[in-house]
Task: structure prediction
Amino acid sequence: MTTIQVRTEDKTKKAAQLILGKLGLDLSTAINIYLVQIIEKKGIPFEIVTENGFTPAEEQKILKEMAWAKKHGKRYTSAKALHDDILKE
Result:
């Protein structure tokens, strides 16, 4: 056996322990389950998403497309002009 030391906010630790306790698990067991799943999945065993709900790659793509649209996109003086342009196509 070996020991792993992890620094985390006290509030985070307590909240996780409360949830895990309801599941009948202690923090060490949950962390060991997580490590085994990393090995089984050969990576993080869940999708990592940003605060907006996108993967980092998806969010980066969206931000890149938004920057392109701001620089090269069409501009309209009114909602009516936008609507008329949409109906032309």
Remarks:
- The helical segments are 10-22, 27-41, 56-72, 79-88.
- Residues 1 and 19 are 26 Å apart (CA to CA).
